[in-house]
Amino acid sequence: MIELSIEKVLQTAVGKQLLSVNCSVNQGDFCAIYGESGIGKTTLLRIIAGLSAADKGTIKVNGVHWLATEQRINWSPQERGVGMVFQDYALFPNMTIEQQLRFANAMDASLLKELLEIMEIKALKDQKPHQLSGGQQQRVALARALMQKPQLLLLDEPLSALDERLNKQMRALLQKIQQLYGTTIFMVSHNVEEIAVLANKLLAINHEETMLYENTKQFFLAKGLLEKLTVQGVVGLKDNKKKQIIVKLSNSTQTVKLEEEAFNAINVGDTISLESMVRPTIYQLKK
User: Fold this and answer.
1) What's the pTM?
2) If exposure means fewest CB atoms within 10 Å of the residue's CB, which of 96, 136, 169, 274 is most exposed?
3) Enclosing domain of residue 28
């Protein structure tokens, strides 16, 4: 359980604004942090990481206080042991990929080998950041954060600089990482589709109140930022071990995991309907 109860006065372009967060998420949750620019999303991540100070409040992780201003408890970033991926990746320019990962944790060679494989960067392990694409640099930054075996993984708009193809690849990679390691993730994002796909919790920050929502899709549907779309596709492949099917759509494919009874009732070549979530062509945030 991660419990946040913090306040901080922010200096913004329109004057002083209070960032006030009071919520709890469970171990293993993927919590997206959503709100307009300048509202304090990145500041919140930095407070959780111990890189910025809260004016008052508490952060409690699995029963242990990382921060309790009244008791003058304030663990350092090193003591908290969080993993954080910044927007600019913050890689060391003079280090190879392998050196970057060893810098984070020189003791666990098996984890290093595993992450090089998962991130598909093993062949690039002797390269330096300037030799890598943006997507490759991002995977290195994510692997370096995971090398610390963090209780919390903090992501600051990690996919915003990627094109659509790489964005979708990284979404799938984040889902795979969370399934493998059960890491609790807080991710700042403006991308509605990204949040709807990845997050099971949504922390919506605005000037009136900050609320934690248990259903990200329902939140965005209610705000008019997502629409339900029913599409038809053909079952191209069945994976009996994982009880999932690969559905061929008009311009893509989609993997769908099913309960055993539904899985057994479907055959390769069947036409089925899928419900998808898409952003409307024109939208605005409704109060």
Assistant:
1) 0.75
2) 274
3) 2-222
